[in-house]
Amino acid sequence: MSVPLIHLVAGARPNFMKIAPLYHELKGADWCRLEIIHTGQHYDYEMSAAFFQDLGLPDPQVHLGVGSGSHAQQTAGVLVAYEKVLLEKAPAWVVVVGDVNSTLACTLAAKKLNLMVAHLEAGLRSFDRSMPEEINRLVTDALADLLWTPSPDGDRNLLHEGVEQERIERVGNIMIDSFELLRPRIEAQETWRRLGLEKGSYGLLTLHRPSNVDHPRSLARIVEQLVAVAQCLPLVFPVHPRTRSRLQDSALWDHLAGAPGMHLLKPQGYIDFMSLLTGCRLALTDSGGIQEETTYLGIPCLTLRPNTERPITVSQGTNRLIGSREIQEAVERVLAGKAGRGRRPELWDGRTARRVAASLRRHLGLP
Ligand code: UD1
Hints:
The chain is an alpha/beta fold. It is 45% helix and 14% strand.
């Protein structure tokens, strides 16, 4: 009997740290064969290859090379390209992660061919359908056969949507596995030194959500406050390509680059970024993953969003949601020592990949 083939699908930056622990857990197994499918949604060295290097991932066996475009173009491009791959050689399971356009497109391609799909990081909901990721999460979870959730709220959301309990398995947070896997290298890196900064003396900033960066007026409002904050707390800002182009379009780039205390960087690889995160006084972000990583590390996180699909980072962790007018005041509160330390959610323990592998084995009918 041939060994079952498993596809690990990744397309965009936040996917790579979610497939890496699973790849390392399964690469030596004699009961399955792995292929990494890279859709090409992210393609710049800093947004993709740098992560493969840092995370010890091999070159993908399949690269769909889809690239950027509107949502429909990108999703359709992946759908068409991945279907061809699936028709050539069908895997026993397709594993998709996260909530990007590639996650949705590969799920749809596989389910139309009646193949088995498992979704890692299932059940998260912001209840905000204006977010493209929320649409991706809803469709992926409606279609996938097996839903691996990171926290109890994920289970509850799925049950509420009518998903059968048998399809849901709580496995914990896979991002924490990546951090634990690379912790020694991250801790040795001390990336802040290269910027002439001390540990704990700066804030780490990321910003890329369309709702924050695509509207010139709200982007300008955010930039004004960041410039003010940087005067008392230096800000390290690795700038996402989408944000860079919006800042340049609206002539805010030079203003930000010239602001005292502001360190604009290109997107950082995983090890440098996580080093900067472990060394910061606080994070200011609109990312999903950083809300989780700061909760795990006990670092205050201010999230520039009206809602979060990761509410456990607020109820148990160090995360606080803020509006774009509250940035300065919220930073001052943290600097005044008014942020709680929070605690680590259950199953965020670096052993999620092991639980996922055991689940896959069971679903393949292996003892
Ligand atoms: C995507 C995900 C988002 C995730 C984010 C992390 C969706 C809907 N969104 O958003 O959930 O948090 O990735 O980065 O899937 N670009 C480059 N080089 C690259 C990639 C992108 O220059 O390697 C530029 C292009 O101009 C592109 C733009 O960034 O049009 C946006 O990229 P896209 O993949 O559409 O969405 P992200 O904003 O990165």
